[in-house]
């Protein structure tokens, strides 16, 4: 019976190295005839130049500076280095090292961004880390003023790459980049409702017959995301407090910030105040996207408080309300990181 076993099958079973050789393939893009080292990730090999790797990576420099022992596996005379990274990461790494892709905010690609952060940290490639972090920090800045501008850029990126924000937040958790989280979460709250945040973003497949995909926040990211989202209600709560809802003088009369002392049209401003209270209640946190208005006038506009002939308040009262709004919007931003329990008081990996 043993003679009936096909020889080819026996060979594969008894010789795993030979089986590996059969399944190994060369990278279509990164196989240079004059390359002098072969990197292998999964079953894909890349024949590249050691000088390129050594020039950018301190780890590779140390690695290649050690004398190679006899019997090191080789491919076409080049030493073979097995890497535990994904094929995509090594493909991206080569594209970046050979200058085929340059990262910038306008053409940002999360596949490359992820490779730059992961490989940059793992192999100590400074220009990967510096470029990727700059891009992320430009898009997700530390000040509210900058976020007002950068959020518009993030919206544009999402139009061409819908999972972008989910990928960036997950990347920040996997790689210790908490400084970008407040801005990234604020953009998420503004763009996605509670259902999408908790159950993930559905991504339509471009291929016929392929099922749709769904990208989710990682568990810790989701917990922080929901904690932070709840705190967004503080903006309207603090505004209501400062306008004076629930404050009375000794005679039992309600004291409100408007009509203010310099008010020029008390009947109009009193009417506007009633409508403003209703608008602030609607602006509060619910299951829909959160507005995070930029100016007090934006609240008036959104909730149609504006009269045909102009503002719902006289100029002095508008000024008082704008100041209350600005003060509490900044306070909301300043308080926000304290509502991300996983990252309280922690720093980015490079600081
Ligand atoms: Zn007034």
From TrEMBL:
SUPFAM superfamilies: POZ domain
Sequence segments annotated as region (Disordered): 1-23
InterPro entries: SKP1/BTB/POZ_sf
Official protein name in the record: BTB domain-containing protein
Organism: Hypholoma sublateritium (strain FD-334 SS-4)
Higher taxonomy: Eukaryota, Fungi, Dikarya, Basidiomycota, Agaricomycotina
């Amino acid at each position: 019976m043993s003679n009936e076993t096909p020889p080819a099958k026996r060979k594969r079973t008894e010789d795993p190295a030979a089986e590996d050789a059969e399944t190994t393939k060369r990278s279509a893009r990164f196989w240079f005839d004059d390359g002098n080292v072969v990197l292998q990730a999964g079953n894909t090999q890349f024949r590249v130049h050691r000088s390129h790797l050594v020039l950018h990576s301190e780890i590779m420099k140390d690695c290649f500076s050690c004398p190679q022992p006899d019997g090191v596996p080789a491919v076409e005379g080049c030493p073979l280095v097995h890497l535990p990274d994904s094929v995509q990461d090594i493909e991206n790494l080569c594209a970046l090292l050979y200058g085929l892709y340059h990262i910038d905010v306008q053409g940002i690609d999360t596949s490359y961004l992820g490779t730059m952060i992961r490989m940059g940290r793992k192999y100590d490639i400074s220009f990967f880390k510096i470029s990727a972090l700059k891009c992320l920090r430009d898009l997700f800045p530390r000040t509210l003023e900058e976020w007002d501008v950068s959020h518009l850029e993030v919206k544009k990126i999402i139009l061409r790459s819908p999972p972008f924000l989910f990928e960036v937040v997950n990347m920040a958790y996997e790689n210790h980049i908490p400084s970008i989280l407040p801005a990234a979460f604020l953009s998420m709250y503004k763009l996605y409702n509670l259902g999408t945040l908790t159950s993930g973003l559905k991504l339509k497949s471009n291929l016929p017959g392929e099922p749709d995909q769904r990208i989710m926040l990682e568990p810790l990211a989701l917990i922080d995301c929901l904690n932070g989202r709840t705190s967004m209600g503080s903006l309207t709560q603090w505004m209501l407090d400062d306008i004076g809802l629930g404050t009375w003088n000794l005679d039992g009369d309600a004291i409100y910030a408007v009509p203010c002392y310099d008010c020029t049209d008390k009947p109009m401003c009193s009417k506007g105040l009633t409508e403003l209270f209703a608008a602030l209640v609607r602006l509060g946190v619910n299951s829909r996207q959160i507005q995070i208005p930029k100016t007090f006038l934006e609240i008036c506009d959104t909730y149609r408080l504006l009269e045909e002939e102009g503002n719902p308040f006289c100029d002095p009262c508008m000024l008082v309300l704008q100041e209350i709004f600005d003060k509490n919007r900044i306070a909301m931003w300043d308080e926000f990181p304290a509502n991300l329990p996983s990252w309280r008081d922690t720093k980015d990996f490079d600081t």
